[in-house]
From TrEMBL:
It comes from the Eukaryota. Coiled coil: none annotated. It holds the Pfam family ELO. This is Elongation of very long chain fatty acids protein. One of its GO terms (cellular component) is endoplasmic reticulum membrane. The lineage of its organism: Eukaryota, Metazoa, Chordata, Craniata, Vertebrata.
Length: 319
């Protein structure tokens, strides 16, 4: 028993010692113990929550859900902005200053006018999509012009302001996954047990661990691509959830729900292609991390594809 405990302590020490010293002081990063406890507590809530709510009435969370979902839109949009600004526009002071000056206006553009009349809402969503597409196009072109490599971009482990800024964005990616555990709690309180699928629980629990490892060991470098796509997808996704939370009268305008799953699948396929080609070229980026992301995305593609089939294609056949 003592030897087993010593092995555990030794493994823990190796995990701690081999991490990025810049991110060690940050919340939940130094040791895997806190994040492991969070995941364990999360699984306990998933198991016990529906049982505790069995004989209780669903909790009305309409206002909380609207605030929460649009706050997540803002957080995702901010992280998307940070990745683009400090990764794509590095080494271009004039452009950096220009985009920093327009920071507030940029975030406003990501919020469609949800609280106008219905026609305004739909127009706002369209406007939102066009603006985001314009920014993505511009940032991709700028990244190419600034020589940011899509084939191999090692992590900058220096303490330069830009490197630290990028590492902090990675931490926010990780912490946003902790916040997103609230999705599950809201399902439980509203007695939406049908939403507590294996896909939902697996996705939420494992994303925290993956992003913790990312911040602990590779906070920056080519991790930017995953953060870029993921924050964009979450901006769209939480926009949908926020609109849906306004009320049932919005449902007829949310016909694009099924495309959220398609967007998730496209994201994971791009991740596989992106990390897969990293395994074929020499790059000063941990191969183990590329293999981890590659294999993880395969599991997500399988699960999301099954969800899409069961939710849309199979139901259509039954009709």
């Amino acid at each position: 028993m003592a030897s087993v405990w010593q092995s555990v302590l030794s493994a823990h020490q190796r995990i701690v010692d081999n991490g990025d010293k810049r991110t060690d002081p940050w919340l939940l990063i130094y040791s895997p113990v806190p994040v492991s406890i969070i995941i364990l507590l999360y699984l306990c809530v998933v198991w016990a929550g529906p049982r505790l709510m069995k004989d209780r009435q669903p909790v009305d969370l309409k206002v909380i859900l609207i605030i929460y979902n649009f706050a997540m839109v803002g957080l995702s949009a901010y992280m998307f902005y940070e990745v683009c600004l400090y990764c794509f526009l590095r080494g271009k002071p004039t452009m950096v200053e220009m985009f920093r000056f327009q920071h507030f206006q940029f975030l406003l553009l990501l919020f469609p006018p949800f609280f106008l009349d219905i026609r305004g809402c739909i127009g706002g969503v369209f406007f939102h999509s066009v603006i985001v597409w314009i920014f993505i196009s511009q940032f991709l072109v700028t990244s190419w012009l600034s020589n940011y490599s899509y084939l191999c971009q090692p992590v900058d482990y220096s303490s330069s302001p830009l490197a630290i800024r990028m590492a902090k964005v990675c931490w926010w990616f990780f912490f946003s996954k902790v916040i997103e555990l609230s999705d599950t709690i809201f399902f439980i309180l509203r007695k939406k047990s049908n939403q507590l699928t294996f896909l939902h629980v697996y996705h939420h629990a494992t994303m925290i661990l993956n992003w913790w490892a990312g911040v602990k060991y590779v906070a920056g470098g080519q991790s930017f691509f995953i953060g870029l796509l993921n924050t964009f997808v979450h901006t769209v996704m939480y926009s949908y959830y926020g609109l849906a939370a306004i009320g049932p009268h919005m449902q007829k305008y949310l016909w694009w729900k099924r495309y959220l799953t398609s967007l998730q699948l496209v994201q994971f396929v791009l991740f596989i292609l992106y990390t897969g080609q990293k395994l074929l070229v020499e790059c000063d980026f941990p191969t183990s991390m590329n293999i981890l992301v590659f294999c993880y995305c395969i599991t997500l593609i399988i699960l999301f594809s099954n969800f899409y089939y069961q939710s849309y294609l199979n139901k259509k056949k039954q009709k």
